[in-house]
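User: Modeling request: complex.
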Amino acid sequence: GAVVSQHPSRVICKSGTSVKIECRSLDFQATTMFWYRQFPKQSLMLMATSNEGSKATYEQGVEKDKFLINHASLTLSTLTVTSAHPEDSSFYICSAPALDGQETQYFGPGTRLLVL
Amino acid sequence: AQSVTQPDIHITVSEGASLELRCNYSYGATPYLFWYVQSPGQGLQLLLKYFSGDTLVQGIKGFEAEFKRSQSSFNLRKPSVHWSDAAEYFCAVSMDSNYQLIWGAGTKLIIKP
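Assistant: Request completed. Predicted assembly structure:
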């Protein structure tokens, strides 16, 4: 089946630095990818929709200058957390649609970010 | 506004017992309905989905779910749980063709030996 990978799986960084998270569709092309954030013991919160060849669409309340999204190719989207702060510590998950006509998505394994 | 409700934050069942996880949605039309499972350290995995047709859908790992339009529900069931089923279960719906999902809060399943 289709696979979505994320790298890194876990990252620890100092406050004020930037962190890049990669999301790749390994055996299919994805013109659209979604980025989610998941807080402990809570559901997924959609942050933005990443579109290949155009700007990302951000959900209300998500700072686009802080969470930079680049959909560089049909198999790669990156999320950069700029000037990270401890409150940015979270679990970040990406997904890509299966394009099966049934709204199925494939999810990456997630990236655990800890900002010290 | 559209919403998905999973009323049980956590459920504890004995190994071998039956399981039902509840999910209700709020929307005028029939959405696409999904159940995902998230195991510790692993990504979200699709258990099953309802698109159209037969309202009782079979999924992986012995799970099934029934869509009941009159109750706006899509409850997940398994006749006999295994210890490996301990995980967080999320119900999600998609209302249109842009693949955006609306998520329930999740239900944590705890299995008693």
